[in-house]
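Residues pack. One example:


***
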Amino acid sequence: MHIELCGGFGEKGRTSVAISGGGRRVLLDAGIKVGASGPDYYPVLAGGINELDAVLISHAHEDHVGALSWLLSQGYGGRILMTSETLDEAPATLRAYADPDDFRRFPLLKDRIELFEPGDSLTIGGLSIATGRSGHVVGGVWFTVDDGSRKIVYSADVVPDSSVFVMDAMPPCDLLVFDASYGADPVSGAARAQAIAEWVAARPGGCLLPTPLSGRSLELLAILDGPFAIHARMRVSLAAQIEARAALHPAMVPQLRRRLTDAADWRDGDPLPSCPLLADDGMGKAGPSATLLPLADVAGYPILLTGHLPAGSPGEALHAAGRAGWIRMPTHPTLSGNLAIWEGAGRPVALGHSCPPDALAGLTPHMPSLRVDLRTGDSYTLAS
């Protein structure tokens, strides 16, 4: 089996891998890189787009699906597979992050998409592809690709210890391509959640919490204690995520329902509320937060960023200037989570995605089989 590292290796963004085996070539995810431009914005597909037999998307965040309209604009005409939740969210992501002309000419038409459920097994020629719940977002999955003799696990984005979402265990494999977003960060999700709750409580006059519409929004709902507001356009999506009960820990469902019911709706033009305000997206590049970040900054309204801050994004600029706080809410594995994944996979050769080289190197004392020399554009072959 042969794997091409099309994006997200030695960098954060444009996460994408192509795997060849069993007479077929499949692309897992097609993301964009926020803050980049030109060819660096899109995956590197040295093997050619027309040689792909299928594209499978793990979830609808921009660094995993944002290049799909571009891929279609380059002539891709093959199969596209994703879960129904990913299909529901992907058009909004593409509208925000795809080239406008690509999105106008190649919107995500439902009749082009083949749907599967997390936990389904798929067959693409001689490749068997298993899926499992990622613990990252509703409808998010990891993939296992098996040609009958060798097996590759591609985690996409996963959260082994989420208090909200369920992650299925990944199987033993010959090559593990894992979510190294946080490098060797040892701080638990529970500790970071407590720090966020304390930061918010210390600002009783209100604050802005930019957040992705899917995934981290429910994690924040679960930890906020007291009244809060959401941008009104988030409510329908948040309610649908809460009702996707197979993706959530059962005990969290009634709690999240109550929290959403009690949340106030904030609309464009309203005064900034004297309570926490959640608005998407998490970087200020799109959605309501693109308008709210500068509005809050001018008003001196506290801002807390809780996710990745790409270079050149509005959130990163405000944080660099000391005008926004930052406490990362873990929506990717910390050190203990990735070690458990690697151990459970049988300590195979490992490639970490979504991580800069210096942070990835911090994992090598814990994970001796980790390859830190490979970058986007490189490839790796598994002997039969």
